[in-house]
Design brief:
One of its GO terms (biological process) is microtubule-based movement. This protein is an all-alpha fold and 265 residues long. The chain has helices at residues 4-14, 21-27, 29-158, 164-180, 191-195, 198-206, 213-224, 237-245, 259-262.
Length: 265
C-alpha cells in the first residue's frame, strides 16, 4: 500500500541528520523502532520499484520459456519419431544393399559357372569325335579280346627259348591257325604294348635292361610268366637288371660253387 507520494513526503525527514536509529534511541525506544521501520519501508519501496518490472519480465520470459519448452518437446517428439522412421528406413536400406550384394555375388558365381560350363561343353564337343572313335575301338577290343589273350598267353608260354626271328615266325603261325578257326583278334596287335606299359619299360631301362625289342620281350616273360625263367645270359645284362630290379626286395644271390651246394654234392 505504500505509494510514491508517501515516500516523497517522507524524504525530507529521512534526509535529516538526526533521523536515525541511534538518535531515536536516546529519545524513546518505541520511536527508534518506528524510525527504523519507516527507513526500511522507504528503502523497500525503492528496491521493489525496480524489482517489479523485473518480476513481470521474468514471468513473461518464463511463459515464453514454457511455450518454447513445449515447442521443443513437441519438436523432440517429432525428431524421435522421424529418427525411428529413419532407423527403420536405414535398416531396410542396409538389408536391400546386403541383398543386392548377395545377388551380385550369386550373379558373378553363376557367370563363372556359365563360363566354365561353356568351356566344358566346347571341350566336350571337341572330344565327342575322339570318344566315339574310342568307344568303337573299345568295342573292337572286346570282340578281339579272346584272340588277343590267346596270342599273349602263347607268347608267354612258348616264346622264351627262341630268338626274335623264331618268335615272329611262331606268332605268324598262331595267327594263321586262329584265322582258320575264325577266332577274332586285332590284326595290328602289339604284344609288347599289351603286356607292359611304357613307364614300366622306362623303369626297366633305368635298372639296366637294354631297350631293344628282344630284351623287352625277355623282361615281359621274366615278370609275367608263371614258370621260373632260365636266363642264358653270356653278357650278364639280365643278371645286372634282375639285381637292380629286386635290390629293394631283399634279393639274395648264390652260385653253384657256393659252400651250401658243395656240401650236398
Amino acid at each position: 500500500s505504500i505509494t510514491e507520494e508517501t515516500v516523497e513526503l517522507l524524504e525530507p525527514y529521512l534526509d535529516m541528520e538526526d533521523y536515525n536509529l541511534e538518535t531515536a534511541k536516546k529519545v524513546c525506544g518505541n520511536v527508534a523502532g518506528l524510525c527504523s521501520w519507516t527507513q526500511a519501508m522507504a528503502y523497500f519501496y525503492s528496491i521493489n520499484k525496480e524489482v517489479l518490472p523485473l518480476k513481470a519480465n521474468l514471468a513473461l520470459q518464463e511463459g515464453r520459456l514454457a511455450a518454447a519448452q513445449m515447442e521443443l518437446n513437441s519438436a523432440q517428439n517429432q525428431l524421435d519419431e522421424k529418427q525411428t522412421e529413419l532407423d527403420e528406413v536405414q535398416a531396410m536400406y542396409d538389408a536391400a544393399v546386403k541383398e543386392k550384394q548377395a545377388l551380385l555375388d550369386d550373379a558373378e558365381a553363376c557367370r563363372r559357372k556359365m563360363n566354365n560350363a561353356s568351356a566344358l561343353i566346347e571341350g566336350l564337343g571337341g572330344e565327342k569325335l575322339r570318344w566315339t572313335a574310342s568307344s568303337k575301338n573299345f568295342q573292337n577290343q572286346i570282340i578281339n579280346l579272346v584272340g588277343n589273350v590267346l596270342l599273349a598267353t602263347g607268347f608267354l608260354s612258348y616264346s622264351g627259348p627262341f630268338n626274335q626271328e623264331y618268335r615272329n615266325l611262331l606268332l605268324q603261325l598262331w595267327k594263321k591257325e586262329i584265322d582258320n578257326r575264325k577266332i577274332p583278334y586285332s590284326k595290328n596287335l602289339n604284344l609288347t604294348g599289351m603286356l607292359v606299359d611304357n613307364a614300366t619299360v622306362g623303369e626297366w631301362n633305368l635298372q639296366g635292361l637294354p631297350n631293344d625289342d628282344l630284351s623287352i620281350q625277355n623282361g615281359i616273360i621274366v615278370t609275367k610268366a608263371s614258370r621260373y625263367p632260365l636266363l642264358i645270359d653270356p653278357q650278364g645284362q639280365g643278371k645286372i637288371w634282375i639285381k637292380n630290379k629286386e635290390k629293394n626286395n631283399g634279393l639274395q644271390v648264390t652260385a653253384m660253387n657256393h659252400k651250401f651246394f658243395r656240401s650236398h654234392i
